[in-house]
Amino acid sequence: MGSAEDEVTKVIYGFYDALDDLLRSRGTSAMIEIWHHTDYATTSHPFGSWARGWTEVNVNWEEAAAVFGVYQGHATRSDRIGGIHDLKVVVVGDAAYGTGIYKSKLYMSDRQLDLSLNCTNIAHRIDGVWKIVHHHSDQAPPEWQAAIGRMVEAGHS
Amino acid sequence: MLGAPHASAAVGTEAGGFRVLGGPDGNLRIAAWGYWPAEVISAFGLDAPAAAQALGRSSVFVFDSKELKPQGAEGQEAIRVLFRVLARLSFAKGSIVRGNAMTCMQLSRLLRECGADGRIEFTDN
């Protein structure tokens, strides 16, 4: 068993693996598994707005999966949609946080959409198990949000 | 007062609910907010579609979602019931006042699924 810092680092990388699964229409089970389902779970995403409590947090991830259910750009790609870079983890007792930069590429029918956002994730150790209890990313630029909105309205990417 | 708009009592709490505002001109405004518990979902699934049935050809429909959070499966189904009714009706103009971007995308998806996407546009107020 590694250090607490190693364990949290693994959890945070796992979060972004789960996010890639979700965005690629591989389901939300990995995302659900990576969180402690607590009433103090919170998340904010590139579209802004807070979800507070596991029920709302889960609905946000389910909706993100539904939004990207119409994204077709992964059909011919083998690379990841996105991932965390420059991750730094700090552990303080049974709580830990990681800061990093999430970078992603979406291949739309008319262009490539690049995203680079500062992110913070907080993990909590409950009964010896580290899981995410908080995720926050900067808001995406308006043009990126608008492009995703158009994708949802059109029902395809 | 004759001719004054009439509002239903708010259903739910500050954390999640809705209110229906109708008028003698046949216009309809539904304001919704927060995350809906089961009792609000049940009430919305009955009250909102029933109110929409009164829309006439010259009526304006507004769904104010500025303070609405993305809803779970049951809440989405209640909204679908409303959107399916709207898809079948003839009215002059329909709009959704947008707020939370994720909610906006959820409503956009539900409109598309219900065949009402050509009938209702998103506005900022």
Describe the structure.
The complex is a heterodimer of chains A (157) and B (125). Chain A has 157 residues and is α+β, with helices and mostly antiparallel strands. Helices cover 34% and strands 34% of the residues of chain A. Chain A has helices at 4-23, 29-34, 54-67, 142-154; strands at 42-44, 50-52, 82-92, 95-107, 112-126, 129-137. Chain A has a 6-stranded mixed β-sheet. Chain B is of the alpha/beta class. Chain B has a single domain (6-123), classed as Transcription Regulator spoIIAA. Chain B has 3 helices and 7 strands. In chain B, strands 1, 2, 3, 4, 5, 6 and 7 form a 7-stranded mixed β-sheet that branches. Chain B is globular. Chains A and B meet through helix 3 and helix 4 of A and helix 3 of B.
Keywords:
heterodimer, A: about 160 residues, alpha+beta, six-stranded mixed sheet, B: alpha/beta, Transcription Regulator spoIIAA, seven-stranded mixed sheet, 3 helices
Summarize the topology.
The complex is a heterodimer of chains A (157) and B (125).
Chain A: H1 4-23, H2 29-34, E1 42-44, E2 50-52, H3 54-67, E3 82-92, E4 95-107, E5 112-126, E6 129-137, H4 142-154
Parallel strand pairs in A: 1-6
Antiparallel strand pairs in A: 1-2, 3-4, 4-5, 5-6
Chain B: E1 6-7, E2 11-13, E3 16-22, E4 28-34, H1 38-52, E5 60-68, H2 73-88, E6 93-97, H3 101-113, E7 120-123
Parallel strand pairs in B: 4-5, 5-6, 6-7
Antiparallel strand pairs in B: 1-3, 2-3, 3-4
Helix pairs in contact in B: 1-2, 2-3
